[in-house]
Amino acid sequence: MRVTHKGVAAAAMTLAIASSGLAAGPASAQPEFTSAASNLNRFQPTTADAENPPFSDVAIDSQFYTEITWLADNGISTGWLQPDGTSTFRPLQSINRDAMAAFMYRLMGSPDYTPPSKSPYADIYAESMFYKEVCWVASEGISQGYVGYDGSLLFGPAGSVTRDAMAAFMYRLAGSPDYTPPSKSSFEDVLPDRQFYKEISWLASTGISTGWTEDDGTKTYRPNESINRDAMAAFMYRFHHELIDG
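Request: output the structure for the sequence above.
Response:
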């Protein structure tokens, strides 16, 4: 399955936003990915990589080592610089919404984009880390924040991203492709009447997410769990290789 990204037109802001912090993305055709996104390097672990890994807390036998190192190799994640000069990825830490915006922006080749001088969100400022990336995610209709108690529009940059929300974000990142979900769910814990059922089913259909096989042989997605940074790396890696470079 191959799609390209031309840039999704910005959707109008609306206060009718789901409590999860996701807004409905714009209706669009299959996107066209930037050439930069299409030309991200592939990566295969080598002995040299094992001796000099990009992150000191991600060993070569770690789950998603290839995917995490691919993220570093392509500049999608730089991790945290430590006092001893090494970098850490913190794979089991939940990914924050602002970091997710930065990952997605870089995954798409860091498209040419000038953020507005006035922030679209009450909790994001021009000097905030990832201000440009958060504004880009909003302008593309991938996420438009949520309404706070005082009626202001918020992004919640330090909030963690749940797995069901991530499915919706990635579906919109792909341009909200035409897709009809199955009448019977692939996952025991995601019923057809659930919010983001379509997006979760789409994620499974592309192979971006495989979920968990439980002891009784059933498959689960665990939609309410926060997504860890290592799983986010796997989603990004599969998104690129299945949809852009597949």
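The helical segments are 35-38, 47-51, 65-73, 97-107, 131-139, 163-173, 197-206, 229-244.
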